[in-house]
């Protein structure tokens, strides 16, 4: 697999997870005050599943986001301390004049 393919797959998974979380949230918001018919209420069962989905995926999504932010911050801190000098210096790169 190439890097572009991996990147596309990861973005697609992130979008799917975001849509599932958004869809579950919207369903809970729109059906929070429904007319319940009793023990076998299908809306109540769906609300329960949406709550489980949000607890599971929401936690995983937030952990992944926190990990990505921490990695970005550590990369930025590490890049502040590293230099961009070449490993080998030549007379030309040091701008030494050879006038003899």
How is this structure best summarized?
Helix content is 68%, strand content 0%. The chain has helices spanning 3-30, 42-81.
Runs with pLDDT <50, length 5+?
A: none
Percent in helix = 55-70%
- What is the count of DSSP helices, taking H or I runs of 4+ residues? 2
The helix/strand order is HH
For this entry, give a set of tags.
68% helix, 0% strand, single chain, mainly alpha, 100 residues
Describe this structure in words.
With 100 residues, the protein is mainly alpha-helical. It has one domain (3-81). It has 2 helices and no strands. The chain has helices spanning 3-30, 42-81. Helix 1 (3-30) crosses helix 2. The termini are far apart. 1% of the residues are buried.
Secondary-structure blueprint:
Elements: H1 3-30, H2 42-81
Helix pairs in contact: 1-2
């Amino acid at each position: 697999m190439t890097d572009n393919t991996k990147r596309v797959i990861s973005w697609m998974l992130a979008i799917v997870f975001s849509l599932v979380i958004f869809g579950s949230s919207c369903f809970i918001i729109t059906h929070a005050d429904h007319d319940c018919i009793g023990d076998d209420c299908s809306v109540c069962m769906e609300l329960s599943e949406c709550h489980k989905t949000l607890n599971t995926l929401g936690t995983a999504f937030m952990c992944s986001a926190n990990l990505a932010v921490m990695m970005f911050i550590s990369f930025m801190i590490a890049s502040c301390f590293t230099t961009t000098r070449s490993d080998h210096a030549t007379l030309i790169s040091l701008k030494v004049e050879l006038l003899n």
